[in-house]
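[step 3/7] inverse_fold.run input=structure_tokens len=227
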């Protein structure tokens, strides 16, 4: 059952004003309404363009200016077709599994997967790199699919902890193994460009599943990542 608006605005007894800029994770799933896909993408873009035009108008911008008059439409297309396209399950990458014919039974690592996401608290960019590793249980996937899975979950309003876990859980389900690791190192513009305005810090999150959740495998993985 969906939470009431009052409950959402009063998380654990605190209002969103009291929570302020604190980093919150409310669950593994991206918070979505049950009717999220009852209207088409074209209808969504039309509504977003109209509403964003109102925001620009409230800020006093002249929407008749040649440089600005197309901005509401551009923002709407960007939201639906690009930076938030991961909200739509129709855009989930199709993954084909292959037999591990090489009988490679050690960890496979793809590191430095670049991604761009957006903080769900302020809708400003999260820019980072993901490192993904797994040990085959008998099946493998194409390397590019690891990138596509990262990017699919990144292309939605996000919290880094959730993003890390969503990628890991998706890989566990696809590969039918718990032997999955995901490490994300990212810069949050809600920290660097506003608020405390700290441009030097980054945030690291990690998920270690199965055999990766042992000191020896964590050390082995870190050694590879540091090369």
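[step 3/7] decode complete -> sequence:
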């Amino acid at each position: 059952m969906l939470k009431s608006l009052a409950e959402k605005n009063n998380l654990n007894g605190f209002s969103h004003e009291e929570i302020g800029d604190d980093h919150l994770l409310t669950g593994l799933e991206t918070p979505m309404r049950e009717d999220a896909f009852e209207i088409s993408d074209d209808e969504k873009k039309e509504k977003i363009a109209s509403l964003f035009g109102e925001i620009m108008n409230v800020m006093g911008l002249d929407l008749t200016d040649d440089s600005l008059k197309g901005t509401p439409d551009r923002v709407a297309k960007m939201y639906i077709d690009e930076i938030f396209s991961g909200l739509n399950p129709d855009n989930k990458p199709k993954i084909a599994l292959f037999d591990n014919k090489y009988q490679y039974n050690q960890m496979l690592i793809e590191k430095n997967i670049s991604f761009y996401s957006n903080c769900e608290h302020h809708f400003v960019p999260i820019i980072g790199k993901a490192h993904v590793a797994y040990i085959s249980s008998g099946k493998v996937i194409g390397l590019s699919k690891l990138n596509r899975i990262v990017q699919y979950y990144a292309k939605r309003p996000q919290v880094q902890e959730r993003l890390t876990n969503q990628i890991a859980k998706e890989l566990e389900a696809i590969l039918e193994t718990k032997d999955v690791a995901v490490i994300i190192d990212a810069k949050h513009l809600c920290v660097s460009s506003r608020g405390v305005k700290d441009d030097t810090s980054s945030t690291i999150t990690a998920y270690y599943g199965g055999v990766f959740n042992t000191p020896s495998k964590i050390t082995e993985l870190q050694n590879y990542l540091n090369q």
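[step 4/7] annotate
Residues 8 and 138 are 43 Å apart (CA to CA).
The first helix runs from residue 5 to 8.
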